[in-house]
Structures are given as structure tokens and as C-alpha cells.
Design goal:
43% of the residues lie in helices and 20% in strands. The protein is an alpha+beta fold. The protein is elongated, with a radius of gyration of 33 Å. The relative contact order is 0.09.
Length: 491
């Protein structure tokens, strides 16, 4: 019988030189993390509450007669509180992505994978799903025992209840995701009447089932194998980055002892080898073996170890946030924190502050309207009544606010040029409209200028709302914009 014939079912063998085989895939044991409480667990749950209240609540927050955050793809407008963005404002999205990337680099260089351990959606929803699992099936040992137990009515009830709650959370998450693109109240009415459109249905089910699968089943596999951040995080670490560290000099040699016994008397370190740091780890690693790429920086092992140290009468901090230099040189916490303000961190901070300041300034000083000039290529130049020469343009005016706006349009930089039509335009809130404009030159001005393209400017003035004294209202425009163009005089 060949080596391939001897391979277990479901394993694709690689025949080695020695005649044996090596599996391409080995299924990992299911990780059942133990519940933990402590300072870092409190912070983690605080961020879970904060992020989920924000995510689930924003689509239902009323603002100016609509929901506070609405990404209306049909109307091609994004509403973010008082800010209205059009497709031409995609530069702001690029700015947000740059700020997020720089922030990630900065936080990682200072204290490792803080984002992964406390605010990443995968971590947040895994915490929620594990909490539900804990309520239905009990803590770690109870879940392990339930896994091994044969199917019974009690097991079906526990597993079935957990699955139903998981599905409800996943579907509600999918509904909320779609509610950022379709108004939440309208979407809820469609769901209640079973009249949801195909695209809304697809994305609700897709996002909901993705949440259900990632947080309920894949869990640490997403962090270990699917997330690219775990692979390139080492490029942002240095020896002064705060990471979760096990104090080997203090903890070794590890071994059990009675409570209150000085470990030095029995020739042991502070670690009693209880393995609670491993049991609470959501990725199933042993932090005592040193830094590993699977560590997401959730600090659950710190909380578990501190609790054990309290019970044993030993000082906390056997597992703690520390730097590699700090551990090797036995620096105090103050000495380690002094190294936080190193050149790398200062450069990241300065760049992030400059980009954030520029972004905020640009948003605050953003013009309340936009104007784009497009020449009518079907009619570059033509003669009209009285021998006047006319050029036709199309202007796209976009109201960037949620109030009605009134504009006055004028021509500058070309002597004798006038607008043939009424120079005022009124736009409804957030309206974008194409406005045809005809610019004319008298015959004598055309002869003076000569044939060819001549530069000119369109001046768009945002006027105050109509008042009883219209002249005073028009005297001081609220904002102005100049757009360059050309006037063609034919031969």
C-alpha cells in the first residue's frame, strides 16, 4: 500500500523524502476562552458599549428633518450632521482614510495592537457573541463539558437559544448597515411590510451572516489568518513599543505553592503555573512564551494574572504592558514612558496633527456652493440678432447646504461681454442644477478683440435671502467664487 493510500480521509498528503507524508491542513482545537474581569476588561466593554451605541444609534438620530448620517447613493449626496457632501467631495474621504492610517501607525508604535484588542469590529462583536454564549452555556468548563456531552433536550435548548440570539444580532447589524444608505424609518417600514428591495435584502443578509459567521464561529481565525494587520505589525514595532510582556526574571521557575508562601523560600518564581493567562486568551496563545503575532493586545491575561497575584499575596504586574528595553534593563514604569516621546513617535504625531488640522480647516472653510463651467461643444460660437457674437455655456451649480440659496452670475475680464439671460438663480436645499448661460459680445468689441479664444471669468455671488430692502441684501455677498473660461470669436 502506498503512502497516499495510507493517508487519513480528508488529508491531502505530501510525500516526503523519508517516505512519510505531511498534511497540508490541520484542524485546530476549538478555543473556549474563560470569562475575565478587571481594569482592562472594563475598558474593553466600555468601548463595546460606546461603539455599538454609536453604530446602532446614528441611523435613528434625527437631524434637520432627516437622520444624522445618511449616505444617499441614489441622490449622490452624503449627509453627516450639518455637512452635505457631493461626489466632488471625495477628497474628504481620502483625508479621513489618511488620518485613520496615521492614527493606526501612531497607536501601534506606542502600544502595539490597541486597535485590535479594544475597538476592532471583529473584537467587539466576538465579545458580544461570547457574552451571549456565556449566558446560555456557562463559563469555559461548562462549555467544554457541553461540547463533549451527547445531544439531549437541554443541549438543544441551550445551543438553539444561543443560535437564535446570534442570528438576531447579525440580522439587526445587517439592517443597521443598510440603514446608513436607505433611511432607517423607510427601511423599517419596508421590512415590516415584506417589501424590501433586492439590493437591500442582499446586503442585509450578507452583512448579517458575515457578522454571525465571523464573530460566532471564526473568531480568532480571522485575527490569525485573515487579517493582514497581524502580518505587518512588526514593521511598526521597535524595542520601545509597549507590548504585553511576561516578566521571566520574576516569574521563573514557575510552579505551584500555597497562598502566602514566599516563592523565594521554596525556590520558585511568582508564576504558579495556573495557566489562567492561557485560558482567558481569545487566540489561545501562552504569553509566557514571549510576543507572538497572534496576540491582539486585549490584555485579558493581565487582568487574570493580577487577580491571581492578589490572591497569592504577590505584587501585580507579572504580566504587564512593558517594552523590550524596559524588561531587559529593568526600567521603572516612568523610565519606560519617557521613551514614548522618541523621534519616531514625535514624527508620527506631528504628521497626524498637521493632516488632522488641515482636514478640519478645510471642512470648516468649505465653500457653501460649487460651480463648474462646461462649454457647449455643439455651439462654440454663433451670430445672433444685431450682429452680436454669442457663446453658450453650461454651468453646474451645487448647493452645499440644507437652506435655499440665491446666486448672482456676472462676467469679468472681457470688455463688453454680457449675459443674455437673467443673472440670478435660486437653488433648493442640496440641489444640483445645470444652468445654460449665453454670453454675448457686441460687433465692435469682437472686431477689436480679433478672432480666437479670449480669457474671461464667471463670478458667482451667493446672496443673502430676499429682504424687504433688496438692494442692501445684494450689496454684500455671503460668498463668491471665480471660474475661468474663454470666449471664442470666429474668423
Amino acid at each position: 500500500m502506498s503512502d497516499r493510500d495510507a493517508a487519513p480521509p480528508g488529508v491531502i498528503p505530501i510525500v516526503a523524502a523519508s517516505g512519510g507524508y505531511a498534511p497540508l491542513y490541520v484542524s485546530e482545537a476549538k478555543i473556549q476562552p474563560r470569562a475575565v474581569s478587571g481594569w482592562f476588561a472594563t475598558w474593553r466593554w466600555s468601548l463595546v458599549w460606546f461603539t455599538q451605541i454609536l453604530f446602532y444609534g446614528l441611523p435613528w438620530l434625527p437631524w434637520n428633518g432627516r437622520q444624522a448620517v445618511l449616505l444617499d447613493l441614489t441622490a449622490r449626496r452624503f449627509y453627516i450632521f450639518d455637512v452635505v457632501l457631493h461626489p466632488q467631495d471625495v477628497i474628504f474621504l481620502a483625508g479621513l482614510l489618511i488620518i485613520a492610517a496615521l492614527g493606526l501607525f501612531l497607536f501601534t508604535a506606542v502600544a502595539g495592537r490597541l486597535w485590535c484588542g479594544f475597538a476592532c469590529p471583529q473584537t467587539v462583536y466576538t465579545e458580544i457573541f461570547m457574552w451571549v454564549e456565556h449566558r446560555f452555556e456557562g463559563d469555559r468548563q461548562a462549555r467544554i463539558k457541553l461540547d463533549r456531552a451527547p445531544w439531549s433536550a437541554a443541549k438543544i435548548l441551550k445551543r438553539g437559544g444561543k443560535q437564535l440570539v446570534w442570528l438576531a444580532i447579525g440580522l439587526w447589524t445587517g439592517f443597521t448597515f443598510v440603514a446608513y444608505f436607505t433611511p432607517a424609518k423607510a427601511l423599517a417600514a419596508e421590512v415590516a411590510s415584506l417589501g424590501v428591495g433586492p439590493w437591500e435584502s442582499f446586503w442585509m443578509l450578507f452583512y448579517g451572516l458575515a457578522t454571525y459567521g465571523n464573530a460566532g464561529y471564526m473568531r480568532e481565525q480571522v485575527c490569525k489568518y485573515m487579517c493582514p494587520y497581524a502580518r505587518f505589525q512588526s514593521a511598526m514595532f521597535d524595542r520601545d513599543t509597549l507590548i504585553i510582556s511576561y516578566d521571566t526574571l520574576r516569574g521563573e521557575p514557575r510552579g505551584s505553592r500555597r497562598r502566602g508562601v514566599d516563592p523565594k523560600i521554596v525556590g520558585k518564581g511568582d508564576c504558579i503555573d495556573c495557566t489562567l493567562c492561557v485560558q482567558v486568551c481569545p487566540t489561545g496563545i501562552d504569553i509566557r512564551k514571549g510576543l507572538q503575532y497572534e496576540c491582539i493586545g486585549c490584555a485579558a491575561c493581565i487582568d487574570a494574572c493580577d487577580e491571581v497575584m492578589d490572591k497569592m499575596g504577590s505584587p501585580k504586574g507579572l504580566i504587564r504592558y512593558a517594552t523590550q528595553n524596559g524588561m531587559e534593563k529593568r526600567w521603572t514604569r516612568r523610565e519606560m514612558w519617557r521613551r514614548v516621546a522618541r523621534p519616531r513617535i514625535l514624527v508620527y504625531s506631528l504628521i497626524l496633527a498637521a493632516v488632522a488640522a488641515g482636514f478640519v480647516t478645510t471642512v470648516v472653510l468649505r465653500a457653501p456652493f460649487k460651480a463648474d463651467i462646461v462649454r457647449d461643444r455643439g455651439t462654440l460660437a454663433r451670430l445672433v440678432a444685431g450682429g452680436r457674437i454669442e457663446n453658450v455655456y453650461r454651468v453646474q451649480l451645487m448647493n452645499g447646504t440644507e437652506q435655499k440659496q440665491r446666486f448672482r452670475i456676472a462676467i469679468e475680464g472681457l470688455e463688453g461681454a454680457t449675459l443674455a439671460d437673467a443673472p440670478e438663480v435660486v437653488l433648493d436645499p442640496t440641489e444640483a442644477r445645470w444652468v445654460p448661460l449665453a454670453v454675448q459680445l457686441p460687433p465692435d468689441a469682437a472686431r477689436t478683440l480679433g478672432p480666437g479664444a479670449h480669457p474671461m471669468r464667471f463670478r458667482f455671488s451667493l446672496l443673502a435671502p430676499p429682504q424687504p430692502d433688496a438692494a442692501s441684501a445684494d450689496a454684500r455677498p455671503l460668498a463668491e467664487r471665480l471660474e475661468k473660461s474663454t470666449f471664442v470669436v470666429p474668423r
